[in-house]
Amino acid sequence: MLSIFLAVLPVFILIAIGYGAVRTAYVPNTVGDALNSFAVKVAVPMLLFRAMLNLDFAAAFSAPALIGFYTGAVSCFVIGIILARKIFKRRPGEAVSVGFAATFSNSVLLGVAIIERTFGSEALTPAFGIIAFHAPSLYILGMVTMELMRRDGKSLATTLKTAGKSILANSLMIGILIGVAMNFSGIQLPEPVISAVDMLATAAIPVALVGIGAAMTKYKISAGLSESMLVACLSLIVHPAIAFGLTHYVFGLEPQTVRAVVTLAAMPPGMNIYIFAVMYDRAVSLAASAFLICTALSVLTATVWLYALSVIIPV
Questions:
Q1: Distance, CA of 87 to CA of 69 (rounded, Å)
Q2: How far out from the chain centre does Cα 123 lie?
Q3: Dihedral sign, CA of 104, 60, 253, 108?
Q4: Which of 277, 292, 225, 231 minimizes the C-alpha distance to 94?
């Protein structure tokens, strides 16, 4: 278990470096926004573009793997909404934000880094199959549910139109779509262009992780600790447990696919949960608190899940 912890530790060290550099005023507090903007708008789209450009779609898109991951995600979304309403007496729109926080894994910035470091680049193939659907499907689920549950929402048709435009304009989705288009077209990029893409893609994960750490200095654990722990329980334990049960015991998928699916499901919520909460002005402080707590706890929980996978499904 120590070896697994040491394997994933560099990922969290980079987050800590970003946090410490800003917290100690070694770099200005605007660095986090700048790094995250560069990562989300330039470097990570290039990483996803390169992944889609070289992806073996027949191997990546496994229906059982998708069912395993997204059954867990949707289950946590529904459970989060119900518990937020029944136990914490949240208003409908706020409950949706809580559910969204419990379902949106940090699959790209943390998941890809941990999978590649722990299991090797070969394990990224099934991971990218999930990532291609991740933001579009979960944002649509969250947006539509929000509009159906909150009283001051727009019509469903307007919501779907807005959601569609937002998703298609998303830089990560643009990188995915262009990569997919070029993959199927068979167009070969010149070597200098490929080299430039490789350089940006290589920088994506380190820059993003340092940016996450720097951004974390802006938020405080000010919302209810019990609600944040609910989100942590759903996102860090329930989601990967459902994904593991379905992919390993029900569908009997090959070990590499199970490892990728469960690792992605075990990732903490990303900044998307905060963006979603701000977009609708629902449970914003809870989203920021849950982001901080889940990211901190995932150092332990991710290690435990990776250890469990190594024991049950030896490499």
A1: 26
A2: 17
A3: negative
A4: 277
Query: Angle 242-248-250 (CA atoms, 0-180°, nearest 5)?
Result: 75
Let me know if 188 is exposed, middle or buried by CB neighbors in 10 A (0-12, 13-18, 19+): exposed
Which has the minimum average pLDDT: 75-84, 167-176, 298-307? 167-176
Closest listed residue to residue 5, CA positions, set 306, 313, 310: 306
Residue 170: band (very low, low, confident or very high) from pLDDT cuts 50, 70, 90: confident
Q: Is the pTM of this model over 0.85?
A: no
Question: What single-letter DSSP state applies at residue 105?
Answer: B
Q: Is 269 helix (H, G, I), strand (E, B) or coil?
A: strand
Exposure b/e, 83-114, CB count within 10 A at least 16 = b: bbbeebebebbbbbbbbbbbbbbbbbbbbbbb
Chain length of the chain: 315
DSSP 183-211: HHHTPPPPHHHHHHHHHHHHHHHHHHHHH
Main-chain phi, psi angles of 105, to 5 degrees: -75, 150
